[in-house]
Design brief:
Elements (H helix, E strand, L loop, with lengths): L6 H6 L14 E5 L5 E4 L1 H7 L3 H4 L4 H4 L10 H5 L10 E8 L5 E10 L6 E10 L1 H38 L5 H33 L7 E2 L2 H14 L7 E5 L7 E2 L1 H18 L4 E9 L6 E8 L29 H11 L3 E6 L5 E7 L9
Parallel strand pairs: 7-9
Antiparallel strand pairs: 1-2, 1-5, 3-4, 4-5, 6-8, 9-10, 10-12, 11-12
Helix pairs in contact: 6-7, 7-10, 8-9, 9-10
EC number: 2.7.13.3
InterPro entries: HATPase_C_sf, HATPase_dom, His_kinase_dom, HisK_dim/P_dom, HisK_dim/P_sf, PAS, PAS-like_dom_sf, PAS_fold
Pfam family, one: HATPase_c
Length: 366
């Protein structure tokens, strides 16, 4: 580490293969053996709102005046230069900058030998905005789950308690109605739990895909048959398949989940004819041909200002029920397959969802 010089020069000199501290995404502050700041990168200046020129050459406690959450001066508590010689640094923790702004701070004490004097103190700074967003998202998820579970579980508990207490007073038709209600609400709870498991796997990158050949046209036909069996008119659907389609290797259960969600949304929230187009298309990020599936309806569509939020957690359009997790899961499944999904306004004025899946054939078939 060189001695402090011109502001940018001092900030840019860090041991390593030509690494410029200003290229680092996190704030970097380095103090020399005398406790004076010799490196203060651009991210540190942004996070602390302190110009680099005001930090370089000053004592670490002055250039970076940190307090713990109880208002105690942090450098006086930790004493990196005069504390125990066996310490190697400080783990990441929340500290306060002047004005009460929180920042995540971790530090490393560099010594020439394990119990020798500190030659450098290297401090990493990170804003708390991303963590706060994650915490808010988790809080929203918990609140939504609690709300969605309360209603069906209250119903299940109420009907089962009533049947157990007054079984002989009800007719067979009344018992059947209560049990059907309990069954439907139990199914609702099961679906919510399955959604939560999917979200957990998507967020952690652990969504497992069991790829095998998938006939996408046949899968669409199965879903339409199920919707017609549930009371939808055959005239409600129009399927247009343009071939020949490339062989598609994907997880059939996950693709069924995507198709089921998009078709159910189109039927429940759209109007008029639901059109499903299946056609070959350039696969995202490669030169091979993939398969594109477009589901569109003739309803009111999605407002322009909401287009960017459709695939986020808890998004619900006007008059839309459910947990608001379905399209978030759909996007996660499509992207786990290496595909893309978009939403736009359809030719009939309604919503148009389009996803493209690459062939993704196993390497041994290449």
């Amino acid at each position: 580490m060189s001695s402090p010089g011109p502001a940018h020069t001092a900030a840019a000199r860090v041991d390593g293969p030509g690494i410029d501290p200003d290229d680092l995404p996190d704030g970097l502050v380095v103090a020399d053996e005398n406790g004076r700041v010799v490196c203060f990168n651009a991210a540190a200046a942004r996070i602390t709102a302190t110009p680099r020129s005001q930090a370089l050459g000053r004592p670490l406690a002055v250039a970076l005046p940190l307090e713990d959450l109880k208002g105690k001066r942090w450098w006086a508590l930790t004493d990196p230069y005069g504390g125990l010689a066996t310490r190697g640094g400080q783990p990441e923790r929340n500290l306060l900058l002047p004005g009460g702004r929180e920042v995540l701070v971790s530090a490393r004490y560099v010594r020439e030998h394990p119990t020798g004097p500190v030659r450098r103190v290297v401090v990493s700074l990170r804003g708390t905005e991303a963590r706060r967003r994650t915490e808010r998202s988790h809080a929203e998820l918990i609140a939504t789950v609690a709300h969605e579970l309360r209603s069906p579980l209250t119903s299940v508990k109420g009907f089962t308690a009533t049947l157990l207490a007054k079984w002989e007073r009800f007719t067979d038709d009344q018992k059947r109605l209560m049990l059907e209600t309990v069954d439907a609400d139990a199914g609702r709870v099961t679906r919510l739990i399955a959604e939560l498991l999917d979200i957990s796997r998507i967020d952690s990158g652990r969504l497992e895909l069991r790829r095998q050949p998938v006939d996408i046209a046949a899968a669409v036909a199965r879903h339409i048959q199920a919707l017609m069996a549930a009371g939808q008119s055959p005239d409600r659907f129009r399927v247009r398949a343009r071939g020949p389609l490339p062989d598609l290797w994907a997880d059939p259960d996950k693709i069924d989940q995507v198709l089921g969600n998009l078709l159910e949304n189109a039927v429940r929230h759209g109007e008029g004819t639901v059109t499903i187009d299946i056609a070959p298309a350039p696969a995202p990020g490669c030169d091979e041909t993939g398969t594109a599936v477009t589901v569109s309806d003739e309803g009111p569509g999605i407002p322009e200002e909401s287009m960017g939020r459709v695939f986020t957690r808890f998004w619900r359009g006007s008059k839309r029920g459910g947990t608001g997790l379905g399209l978030y899961i759909v996007k996660g499944i499509v992207e786990a397959h290496g595909g893309t999904i978009t939403v736009d306004r359809g030719p009939g004025g309604g919503a148009e969802f389009r996803f493209i899946l690459p062939v993704s054939a196993p390497a041994y078939l290449g």
